[in-house]
């Protein structure tokens, strides 16, 4: 049985290279503590219309605080804070990191839980 994603994904999404795994996740957020509004995809926000639909439906995360904070400093409109959570296989599937540590997370239905993310000011491990 294929797990259901939230929101439903198009055929061929997520890519086969994305896997369910335990992964530290750092996300740029606007609120402390993070709220559900901090976990809207580009598709939900009506942003990046020229980006592939599959990627528009994912949530951006980073593999380290340093990488997320660097992106936050480059693009302040993304948010004032970096929040950390430990994602597990139950949360969904995650792409491999690119050279900047950016990953895409396609969440299983009901698995975007802002309360699992805590604002941090440096590297953090759960």
**Total number of β-strand segments?**
6
Q: Output the helix-strand order.
A: EHHEHEEEE
The figure for the number of domains is 1
Order of neighbouring strands in the sheet with most strands? 1-3-6
Explain what this protein looks like in three dimensions:
There is one protein chain. The protein contains three helices and six strands, in the order βααβαββββ. The chain is 14% helix and 24% strand. Strand 4 (92-94) and strand 5 (102-107) form a beta hairpin. It has helices at 42-45, 53-56, 65-74, and strands at residues 23-29, 59-62, 81-87, 92-94, 102-107, 118-120. The model has no long low-confidence stretch (mean pLDDT 92). The chain has 126 residues and is an alpha+beta fold. It has one domain (23-120).
């Amino acid at each position: 049985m294929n797990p259901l994603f939230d929101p439903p994904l198009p055929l061929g999404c997520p890519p086969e290279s994305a896997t369910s795994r335990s992964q530290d996740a750092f996300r740029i957020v606007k609120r402390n503590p993070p709220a559900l509004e901090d976990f809207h995809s580009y598709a939900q926000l009506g942003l990046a219309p020229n980006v592939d639909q599959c990627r528009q439906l994912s949530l951006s995360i980073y593999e380290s605080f340093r990488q997320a904070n660097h992106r936050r400093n480059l693009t302040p409109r993304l948010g004032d804070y970096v929040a950390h959570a430990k994602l597990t296989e139950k949360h969904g599937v995650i792409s491999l990191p690119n050279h900047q540590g950016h990953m895409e997370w396609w969440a299983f239905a009901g698995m975007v839980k802002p309360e699992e993310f805590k604002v941090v000011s440096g590297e953090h491990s759960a």
